[in-house]
Amino acid sequence: MPCPVRHIENVWIPLPDGGRLAARLWLPAEAEDAPVPALIEYIPYRKRDITRDRDEINHPYLAGHGYACLRVDLRGSGDSDGVLRDQYLDQEQDDGVVAIAWAAAQTWCDGNVGMFGISWGGFNALQIAARQPPALKAIMAACATDDLYADNMHYMGGCLLADNLSESTTMFGHTSLPPDPAIVGECWRDMWLDRLSESGVWLDIWLRHQRRDDFWKRASVCEDYAAIRCPVLAVSGWTDGYTNAVFRLLEHLDVPRQGLVGPWGHKYPHMGEPGPAIGFLQEMVRWFDHWLKGRDNGVDREPMLRAWMQDSVPPSTQYKLRPGRWVVEKEWPSSNVRDLPLRMARHRLLMPGENPAGIEPTIDRMQSPLTLGLFAGKWCSYAAAPDLPHDQREEDGGALLYTSDPLSEPLNILGAPEVELALSADRPVAQVCVRLEDVLPDGSATRVAYGLLNLTHRNSDEVPEALEPGKRYVVRVRMNHVAQSFPAGHRIRLAISTSYWPLAWPPPEPVEIAVEPVESTLFLPSRQDTLDDERLCDFGMPEGAPAMHRTMIEPEHHNWLVHRDLAADSSELEVIKDDGRWLVEDLGLTIRSVINEWYRSQGADFGSVSGETATRKEFRRGDWRVTVRTYTHLTSTPTEFLLRAELDAWEGDVRIFSRNWNRRIPRNLL
After folding, report:
1. DSSP helix/strand/coil, 552
2. pTM to 2 decimals?
3. Same structural domain for residues 319 and 424?
4. Which residue of 186, 398, 543, 656 lies most exposed, with the fewest beta carbons within 10 A?
5. CB 94 within 8 Å of CB 88
6. Quick one: which of 426, 429, 484 has its CA closest to 455?
7. Which SS3 state, helix, strand or coil, does residue 187 take?
8. CA gap 667, 670 in Å, rounded
9. 534 lies in some domain
10. Does a structural domain hold residue 539?
């Protein structure tokens, strides 16, 4: 690294109400005499321990390149004061604005501040940028969204995602953990009891907002893109859940902006899986050097979008490497990307130029089995388990299929595929899932993109409307953005189903849809190669500061298991995320973390659908040992969601807290 770095394990950022935010600080050694810009990462995932591995790679590297780096715990998380009661609250953003002003006023800071983060840290970088704090000069938001309702882990196309349960489980465990006594002192126990008593079950909150209402609008920057007035670097990966936001930000922001999308899941690109990972910390340094230090390094003259065009691959639930190549677009939307319409016929997709003469109008009917979706993978891949979609032939038997003839020449797409469907349903509440597949010559099928639509949301997410059974509607279903190359000899397939459990919660009762294929069309965002492709994407190899040394005491174990009991006609998806037990050497701290999830159904009984999660987290140092266990169970009737949750906490072998929740939440055209 260009300059030596000084590290301070904890600094306190005072808040106007007397509370404090806790932060780790890395500084160039001479920053007190030669002030530098500050970079802030502001998240709830415990700077002291849980994110320490990642922080040790990122922050010292950036500090070594001339930045004061602050890794700040949100109020109510880690070692900060207070209680965290939900995501992206006004209080969180207010505190973030204060933290920026505090950093800008320090003797080691030259008054210029940037924010960066992945996931939650990317979310609040966008949200706080919309507050326009004077010192904030640029941000980098990775794996984040501009729209908390329509494109987030909670709802998709008006359908309830199972990640709503999964994410609430993650946060249930995190918000119930104590601060470290080595940082906060003897008050740690009182702070812990406050968190246990007051953080609550966030799933209860999220399920009470099933439409796009003010709860979601409040912190969605898409409500007013013009409020963001600083440069934005937006980053994601094709197997991440937040890719679409990159393209909306490029289209709607009116500030210097760039988008970068690789093959990765929910990880920083220098740690990206599937690979190839890139030298992303170098890219961040260049980005902030230009906007915070005023260096003319060419960042402002680079293409607006750099994206990884994925080659065709056989279906797999995990990839170490996704072959492909970099492509660029000078602007987005791009005049180099045009809709390619593929008309539909019975069981067929018609490529442009194919003669539709003689194709008879038909009606194709389908009621998908509840088991369709067991092999769908996770809404957002964390590359911590085999969580990508399996061979689509496992799912296609319960769907309507429309397949092209083998392609005579390659086809590249970049953008969001979309399908217009003429259909009817026999129930007032129904959903459709559409999947775009690459069918290989051997018949195996790789999912390329997918989309969901709760048909009651066909006109609006704010004011859903029940369907009139049997009435014909024309709807558009937008899929996730993707860059994909279909080789000659491969076929393109569109699959349509009436459920996609457990990725999405099913409708209240079984539904049959009737599709009119000759009145329906698939639109693919076809792209032509350009001379600028690849030569403008010269990424270096991944760099970073030396990784933290940890000693694994018990190994990690991640898996996805599908269980079928044919005698009982029951199905279960079991997800295991066991991070093992490890020792953080420089803290003398041992950590244990396990999350288990089970998603079940019985035959065709929509009332049997259930999601169940359990977490266990344990921290130990010397005689200090704390354990938190959570349990959440969600099921439904045609009219209600039924939520049950439990929280238990131990100090040593003594249980010091226990609480149960039982909630009944009305379904709202969902």
Report:
1. strand
2. 0.97
3. no
4. 186
5. no
6. 429
7. helix
8. 6
9. no
10. no
